[in-house]
Structure formats: structure tokens, C-alpha cells
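Anyone up for a design puzzle?
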């Protein structure tokens, strides 16, 4: 979880699934890369707007793709 609403989302999820918190998209992708096993899928699936971190949804998606490509 990351961003302004991460605490609210974390409270709603509770202990239903393991959560990883990150301060940035780069940190989140790096943590996912470290946790992923061969064959796993790392999916960008926003639960809400993220105007505190990105210009818009296109910027968020572009930065995600760029971050993944930079780590590949």
C-alpha cells in the first residue's frame, strides 16, 4: 500500500491478506520484485485516485511501466 489513503485501505483490509507498505511507486515495485516467485504476476491495481503522487491515471500507469522496465 502507498499514498494518502493507504492507512484507510489498510484498516479496511485488516488481517485478511498480508500487506506491504511503500513510500513510493519505485519502492513498491522493488518490494514486489523481491517477494515475487517465478511465474507470479505483479499487477498495478489502484483502489482509488492517487493525485497526491501522480498527475493522473495515465502518469501513474506510465511510471509503473517505466519502473518495471528499469528493473528488468
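Challenge accepted. My sequence:
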Amino acid at each position: 500500500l502507498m499514498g494518502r489513503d493507504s492507512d484507510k485501505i489498510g484498516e479496511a483490509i485488516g488481517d485478511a491478506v498480508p500487506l506491504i507498505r511503500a513510500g513510493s511507486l519505485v519502492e513498491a515495485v522493488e518490494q514486489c520484485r523481491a517477494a515475487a516467485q517465478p511465474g507470479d504476476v505483479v499487477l498495478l491495481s489502484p483502489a482509488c485516485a492517487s493525485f497526491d503522487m501522480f498527475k493522473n491515471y495515465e502518469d501513474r500507469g506510465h511510471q509503473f511501466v517505466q519502473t518495471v522496465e528499469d528493473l528488468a
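A detail worth pointing out: The chain has one domain: 6-71.
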